[in-house]
Amino acid sequence: QVQLVESGGGLVQAGGSLRLSCAASGRTFSSYPLGWFRQAPGKEREFVATISWSGGSTNYADSVKGRFTISRDNAKNTLYLQMNSLKPEDTAVYYCAARRTVVAAALTRPNEYDYWGQGTQVTVSS
Prior knowledge:
Order of helices and strands: EEEEEEEEEEE
Number of helices: 0
Low-confidence stretches: none
Shape: globular
Structural class: mainly beta
Number of strands: 11
Largest sheet: 7 strands, mixed
Mean pLDDT: 95
């Protein structure tokens, strides 16, 4: 079992930056592909970014490409999301997710993940 806890959300002005963290428990964290998703009020949960177990491969939604960076520190059991040039449309609850197994897939859908954090609110004012 893996428990995920997000932190780092808050209120920021458009153009600003935030760094989200996701702390994980469990000895097998380093073998899991990980992802970030977000959900705005009244909308479905959407893919933001994913990273392979080694950190060597990343994938981003077109809407955040060039502005957000996903990374991981397996020694610290922590996943990060650096968010720059934030826009009001980035406002959402951000969730980290982990998948138990490695597959040759993009892992952009919520149902491809096994564990979820409770979420952290990011609000970008215009």
